[in-house]
Structure formats: C-alpha cells, structure tokens
Amino acid sequence: MEAAAAAPVLDAFFAGPRHHHHQLRPTAAAGGGCRSARLQAQPSRAAAAPYARADWQAACAILASNSSGGNGGSTSSADASNSNSSSKQPAPRVNGQEPPRPPALEATPAPVPAELDLVPVSNLPRPLSISDLSPAPMHGSQLRVAYQGVPGAYSEAAAAKAYPGCDAIPCDQFEVAFQAVELWIADRAVLPVENSLGGSIHRNYDLLLRHRLHIVGEVQLPVHHCLLALPGVRRELLTRVISHPQALAQCELTLNAMGLNVAREAFDDTAGAAEHVAAGGLRDTAAIASARAAELYGLQVLADGIQDDASNVTRFVMLAREPIIPRTDRPFKTSIVFAHDNDGTSILFKVLSAFAFRDISLTKIESRPHRHRPIRLVDDANVGTAKHFEYMFYIDFQASMADVRAQNALAEIQEFTSFLRVLGSYPMDMTPWDAAPSSWSSRVDNSSSQHL
C-alpha cells in the first residue's frame, strides 16, 4: 500500500519538462504488492505536478523500508496477513515530514513512525562546473585580464583600455601571464609587443610561438613618462634614477637637458621602480613611471612628460584561449609566423611576392632565430663550410582571414614553407589617440626660444 502511495510522488520527481522526449517513471511490478520499482519509458504529458524534494525523500524511505522488511519477489497470503496485523512497521518520517498515506489508511491509527534525519541538501558541496573555472561574462564586464607588472604599470592601463571595467591581474613575468590564461586563472592577457621608440619586445614574440594562445585584438597606448620622488625631495638632491631599461632610454636626452647627470639603474618595470622608491623611503632616488603610479604609491611628480619623443606609443596584443571569428565588415589584421628548412632567408622574397601580388599591405616583419635549429651548415667543395642562421619570420598584414585574398596568399605560402602558423586574425585598433602632451624637452626648447 505504501509503495502504491509513493508512486505519485515518484511520478512527480520524474515528470520534469515533457516536451518531445519519453520520460522514465517507476511502475509497480506485476503480481501483488510492490517491493521494488522499475523504470519504464512513458509518452510525454502536457503538464506535471510541481516536485518537492522532501516528498521524494519520503518516497525513497518508503521503498527502502519495504525492501528491507521482505524477502523480495512474492509472499504468501498468510505472510501478508501476519505482516498487516502485527509486524508491519510504518515508513519513517524524513526530516520531520510525514510520508504520504493512501486514503484508506488515513483514518486507521498507526504506530509512531521512526525518525529519519537526512543531511540537508544546502550543506552538501556543490559540484564544480565549467562556469566556476572561467565564466563567460559580457565584453569587459568583470573579465579577468592578466598583465605583466604591478598596479600602476602601463600594461595595466592598456588592459583597462582594451577591456573597460575588467579585473586586472598583475603578473611578475610575461611567462606567468601566458600561463595564467592557459590555466584558466585569467580570461585574457594584454602584453606589449612593440614600442615606437624601443622597437619589438622579443621575449613576447618567442612566447607567442611557445604557447598556444590566440591574438584576439590589439590596443595602442601613448606612453607618458613622469619623474617621481618622495614628497619634499628636490631635484638637485637626487643621486640616481631607476626605471625599466626602455623607459630610461626613452628619457635619456631629457634627463641630460634637465642637468640630472646621475646614475641610472635598470628595474623590472616602471611601476615597480616607483613602488621600490616608496617602500624603501629612498630620498636620493627618483623613478620614471606613470602619473597613476605616483598616485598609487604616494609620490610627487618632479617633472611631467619627460619622454624624448611626444609620439611615444606602445602596441599591446590581447590573448585568449580561443580565436575569434574573422569578419570583413571592419578593418582586420592577421599575424602569422613561418619558417623553412633549406632556403634560409630566400623564403622571405617568395612570401612578400604572395602578398604583393594580391595587394595586401604588410604592417610588420620581424625575424627571430630558430630555437631548435639556430645554425644551418652549407658544405661547398670549393669554399668550404659556411654557417648561416636559421630564422622564424613574423608578419602582420592588413586583411582578415575571412578575405579570399588572405586565404589564397596563405595557401601559396604554405606550399614552400615547412612551418606556418596563424597567430590570430583580429580587429585593428582604430580608436583615435589622445592628444599626447608635449615632452619636457620640447617645452624647454620653446621657452628658451621665447627669451632669444
């Protein structure tokens, strides 16, 4: 009887959305009372009663008590009579809730059921899902973006420009930023690849080939250097200036024009140099960093815009685990890397011809020594053995992979290269640059000319 009463509850449990599939439901076994349940496919129904988990737990307890009280299969009528008269125990109450009873038994007084306290569902650990590892938010909405440096670095500003409102994750090395995306710690990485004054950042080009991340965008950030020191420190009291090597090189002429003939020491990054001055209380040391770094670490700006060239711009690439779908409705750029085993640098002429024939503009050509085969030996009976460097060539061109011209060009290039890989096809950064403030040296020159 209890098993028959539990059937509607079980029906409710298995009666989820019934649209276009058969559902599994328990049915009673043939021949007398039910001691077990089996699943049977039933046609879909239009609607189902709402399902309560407490009812499902009670129904499970009923089935468990019936199964443990019998020997399975069928019983004789005498056994059934004895069971109904004396030895039959009521189903336990699950978490204080009475189990459902058939109408015929509601008026019959029943023994007090045993209490069965189950672990609350809310206290059980929830299984991890893919959303726990890497959610897929809207563009720029709490996106986790890795960058190299500490807060206040130019890479952090580039991450904020690429993904406004993102959760920026600082990394101490470029390699760590790559690994953060590969290990699902971050969703994107924003890393520099070239500067208008300092040239290419070769380390990141090597890492692009070593890792399997895809370029999904680019952002160009004007660099505005400032000379920072502790509050109250005067310029003539400085004995050294620290910053990233490229920042020191980009401000060399300006520092000389300011009369700062002091020691210049390299540091890991610009914002890290500012943090070092603030944390160490170094009153004889200045740092070259951004104005945001001065705000974060409580430093004063001794000189603003000290870069030698006002048009100092760094190009960053945005990296992700999956590529984006190329389009043709807006300007796209595609980055590739290729190499050849035998022809050496003569392969470059064939590649350039493939692009020139299809009127595809190139924006960058970069060569890096082949890591696994840096030297190529050429034996000549007349002149002896010659040693040549083997190179990997990186090329950026202005075309989308959805463009037939780009597809045909790469198909031709693939015929005479031993290695070809598309690093990414992504939208070009078409945002206008902010008006870069004039450099400190140009202001000094202008003020001097006014006195002449």
TrEMBL record:
Here the segments flagged for biased composition (Low complexity) are: 68-87
Pathway involvement?
Amino-acid biosynthesis; L-phenylalanine biosynthesis; L-phenylalanine from L-arogenate: step 1/1
EC supergroup of this enzyme: lyase
Q: For the region Disordered, what residue ranges are annotated?
A: 68-109
Q: Name one GO biological process term.
A: L-phenylalanine biosynthetic process
Q: Provide the catalytic activity annotation.
A: L-arogenate + H(+) = L-phenylalanine + CO2 + H2O
Start and end of every ACT domain?
336-427
Location(s), subcellular: Plastid, Chloroplast stroma
Query: The Prephenate dehydratase domain covers which part of the protein?
Result: 144-321
Domain of life where this protein originates: Eukaryota
UniProt cross-references to CDD domains, sorted A to Z: ACT_CM-PDT, PBP2_Ct-PDT_like
Which keywords, in A-to-Z order, does the entry hold? Amino-acid biosynthesis, Aromatic amino acid biosynthesis, Chloroplast, Lyase, Phenylalanine biosynthesis, Plastid, Transit peptide
Molecular function terms from GO: arogenate dehydratase activity; prephenate dehydratase activity
Give the GO cellular component terms, alphabetically: chloroplast; chloroplast stroma; cytoplasm
Q: What is its EC number?
A: 4.2.1.91
The UniProt function text for this chain reads:
Converts the prephenate produced from the shikimate-chorismate pathway into phenylalanine.
Name-wise, this protein is: Arogenate dehydratase
What gene is it encoded by? LOC101753169
